[in-house]
Description:
By secondary structure, this protein is α+β, with helices and mostly antiparallel strands. Helices cover 37% and strands 18% of the residues. Strand 6 (119-125) and strand 7 (132-138) form a beta hairpin. The longest helix has 17 residues, at 15-31.
Amino acid sequence: MNETDQIVMPSVWSPDAAALISFVLRFWFDNRRAPNTADVYHGMGFDHYTAGRLYRELQLGLAAVVADDRLQLNIIKMLPFSATPTPNKLIIDGQFITYLGCAGEAFSVSGLPMLEDTQYEVQSSCSCCYAPIRLRYFGPELQTPQEELPMVAVVGNPHMWEHGVPADRVCDDFHFVLDDAHAERFGRRISRRHVTMEALRMAALSRPIAQRRLRDPASRLWLDAQLHMDAFASLGVDISLWRPADDPAADDSASGRPPG
């Protein structure tokens, strides 16, 4: 990350932006919908211009997707929640609460304080065959047996996600699949190469986000391709497809040898 990036992207949210994240997620959880501009005004006292400025701050930090060029400031996503339908649904006591952004958010949702001491599940489906997938939780603890867990197919790469790319663009590259064969068929169907990983590795990547969400004002994200690739590789994910062809580490990764 260069000096200019550090100036543009502070390491923490402004106090008002942090308060807005908390308000939106808690309102959404309680009311099963995102707040509109009137809800934000009555709940937080932010007028249209203030709310628009704060939403833009949240978008740059990969926390939200908002139609900030529309007068109604329609909230599309406030991670991990999604106002637009996705394959991933948060269910409590058999009741639909909200859609979740992607396979990654199906794990990072476990860090929300309002889910502590709560039994819930994330319902999803295989992106190849649409077979049902269920992740069962109690609070932050994933309780689904390992042998029942799906895999995750990543059909983009970190170079496509970094430095201000909207969160919904990133989410669109993470998909649940039943196994490697289903990942292969899914990749062929959409004409994309893919990287696959076990669900527990995706959970491990999401854990730092989950643990800080709504608790730590420094939870602002800034996706850097190399840092993201290093995180995947540190968990044993084969990232050879993401490396330039002339990068010696690409051959090392593909062969299973450690780089260097």
